[in-house]
Amino acid sequence: MLKKIITNPFVFFPLITAIIFWPLSFHLFTLKNDALTYYYPIRTLISDALNNKELPLWTPFINMGYPLHADMQSGAFNPVIWIFSFCTNYSLYGFHLEFLSYLTFAGIGFYFLCKEFGYSHYTSLIIGLAYEFSGFMTDSVQFFVCISAACYVPFIIIYFKRMSTNYRVKDSILTGLFLFLLFTGSYPALFIINVYFLVAFTLFTFFSHPTKWKYITTISLPLVIVFCTFILLSLPAIISFFNHLPFIERGKKQSLEFAQQNSLSAYSIISFISPFSTSANENWFKTDPLMRSSYIGIIPLLFLLYALTNKSFLKVKNNLFFLITGIVMFSLALGNHFFLHRLAYTILPLVNTFRHPALFRLFGIFSLLLVAGYAMNDVENSTDPAKLKRLKKLTFYSLLTLLLIAIILSLILKNEIIIKPAFSLNNITTLFTQLNFIQRFLLQLPIVLLLLLLLYFTLPYKKTVQILLLFCITDFFITTQYSLPTTIIGAKKFTSVSGLLNRNMEKFPLPKMSSIHANIFNSLDNLQLTGSKLPFTKQIGRNDYFITPGNLSSQDKFYVSAVKEKVFKNPIIYFADTILYNFQVQHLLTDAFAIEDSEASNLNRFVIGQHSTNDAIHITNFSANSISCEVNNTYPSTIVYLQNFYPGWKAFIDEKPITIQKANITFMAINLPSGSHLLKFKYDPQVVKYTWYISLSFMLLILLYLGTCFVVQFFNTHNYRNPERQPE
After folding, report:
1. Which residues pair with 651 in a beta bridge?
2. How far apart are CA 574 and CA 610, in angstroms?
């Protein structure tokens, strides 16, 4: 009974995830780099807006104002992130919980995908485990949206496969729902790759179908339902992203050189055996250390080799499809090391818009694991002793091959094997990060050899697959521990990081009328954990750290301009004492100026404003999407608001709308008549808000429909199992 409970996927995967990632489960350490400098602050800002009872449309705390909803990696429209926002207020505890949840459901999803293909319970557990703790996962932890993408993909394939077989409305809706979650909560490149994966699977199903015309007619309606479900749920995100593209550099076609950054090196093939060794600082890997590993576990790898050496496996259409797809995906991952990515860049839409070809390896791992799972399932259910004998022989040859590789590498790199005196066992984290390639390889090799040796002697037993599960748990536990200090956790303890990033419980404090320079100075992070403390200290400004890859082009232009230093000497909102039209500012003696774009005037001129000592601006209300002020000015004035000019902003004087002008390259300004006034700037993109209401209404209808289907299925199953309770 206890074994049945523990091996239940909804118990097994959360338990194993908590154990293997124990530094995060017990909050001893935190994630690091991009996870803390970008994805965590973005989530805190979403949470603050939602808990302030407003949509997370704009944030004033990133790069002098930024359209949060238009950032493709922010997750502002993703309901999973909204749930964590409401439940945890996005403390670091909540951030870790979200990460561990993605990992857990990645394993659960792949388990049920294996069951969908008819694999046994234990085989599905092993392959699900291999997917959850594959090299892509342990490498990409800092790229938080890559982990969330890997979580959603198995569910998309499950329901898409069911839809392609049964043509049910429920499966079509669920496919569209998970595509929406992938689109709004993951890295855009992985969504694009996933769509091509589905296209390939559809073509495979079409050519495999005995009556192709009938397949076209029956699959058309389910595909339309998938498309409509996805579009209706994603509509506000689609509009936001599309409208944002002209304002960012990433919105344009990228050069081939840019698109092939972080290509998977051919040398990274050794990560199938020793993923820890590929994290070494070696130039010949030629890519980011977080884009190198393709580890799937020693046991699944052995069964993959077993499948490749058995012709009968390749006669099964599903195996052949996933094998070819896996090879193609890894070929694309090679980027500039192989011709296929260049070809895809040239002919396939959207492949020329993103970089990191190594991301393709996620779907390569995905495909090859399904082939390995088929082989494992076949051996488990077979009564033919010849299969076990063949597998045992393959295990023996693998042992010999690894020993030979170790000997050759040791001879070639013998001068690098000895640990230098500078190493100290007092700091194991530092020790691990400073080991070179051959040291890391030889450190992991004994574990690999021991697993193969144990497998060799346990293959004849009847409960081999259950023993294999224990071997796999051991394998992934040890392998992940090697990766923890290099690609997953930071060196600082959870308590120190949490203290530095202490959340301001006052969600939107009124900005002080201090200069932007002063705000930036107070945002410095001496520990280099956050990149920028501005989102946490709730101060307006921008330091040298680029917190988002989708930064506004106008903000970048301003940041390298001659006027930046002068403009930053002003507070967030100020009176302009000088207004310039197409004027060169090198000899300006004032800081409180406004450079206005004016195509109507071809003359270089400036106007000196009139001011009184009684003129004042008092901020009365401030939130994610608005600022309200009481203004007293003796003469007509120009007021500059140091938030980026962007479509959707509106200004009101005494509740009457007024035109916003673009000033100082990227900011906003309005002309204000003399007197006492109530001034309000409000970010209010109407189309986005209305489409969000449509999306939310459709989401509620979907949840109602799925809930009804679940209840009906539950009672049908209950009545079937208990016929005496059926009405006469």
Report:
1. 658, 681
2. 14
